[in-house]
Every structure is written in structure tokens, then in C-alpha cells.
Amino acid sequence: MSGRVPVATTWLQSCSGCHIALLDLHEELLDLLGSIDIRYSPIVDVKEVPETDLGIVEGSVGNRDNTEMLLKFRERSKTLIAFGTCACFGGIPGLRNLFTREELLRRGYVETGEHCGWNSAGGPRTSGARAIRQASQPTCAG
Predict the structure, then answer these.
(1) Is 129 a residue whose pLDDT tops 70?
(2) Is residue 114 pLDDT above 80, yes or no?
(3) Tens of pLDDT along 43-68?
(4) Got the DSSP string for 46-86?
(5) Which domain holds residue 85?
(6) What CATH number does residue 41 fall under?
(7) Residue 9 near residue 44 (C-beta atoms within 8 A)
(8) Same domain for 72 and 131?
(9) What is the pTM of this model?
């Protein structure tokens, strides 16, 4: 493994799309793999983040676990790269920072349910056979 750069990667709160983009390098991925040594990654079965030359982090920090992982990567990586929109700017998960926790919970669990045919008490707004159909399919497409 001499001459290969030790690398660790992780994703925090995100869709993991940036890691998928790395896999989308197709044949060029083989050239890349010849010059790196992946020591830690969500797709490798390693439990502890090792000392490494290059750390690559995708995703935004959304909870304590994410914070702890990011700090471990900073501590154990000679160079750390924030990879992707979520890591650099917050991305879609970062939009929650524009609202209070109460606004987010109301929108996510009350207003969205009402839009899908559920009342604020958690039950269907209609009765009879239609309500039973709705109860068996509490998700909505619109």
C-alpha cells in the first residue's frame, strides 16, 4: 500500500448522493482506487475513524452524533474536505435553520397530515368506507 493516500469518508445528515457521485466515476474509479487506501467509509465495515491523510465529509450537521463524527474527522485527518452542497452550505437539511422547531413540527406533523386528509387529532377527516381506505394509506402524493 505504499504510495497510496490513506482516505476516510463519511456522510452526516444527507441523502448520500455525493458518495454515489464518486461511484459514478465508472472506469475512472479504478484509477482513483489505485492511488488511495480507503480506511473508513459508510461502505466499509470499520468501526473507528483512523488517523488519515485525507478526510472527506458530506452532509450537514443535524444532531450530536453528526457533531461528534465531524470532530473525530477533524482531529484524525491531516486535510479535511467538505464535499457537496450539504457539507458546504447546509443543503436541503439546512433549510430547517430558517424556522423554529415549533414551526417545523407543526408543518411536518400537523399541516401536512391535514393536507393528506387527516385532522389535527391524527384521525381521518371523513367517515365510513372512505375513511377506512384513507386510514390504510396515510401517505399522500399531493
Answers:
(1) no
(2) no
(3) 888 999 999 999 999 999 989 999 99
(4) --SPPPEEEEEEESB--SHHHHHHHHHHHHHEEEEEE-SHH
(5) 5-93
(6) 3.40.50.700
(7) no
(8) no
(9) 0.70
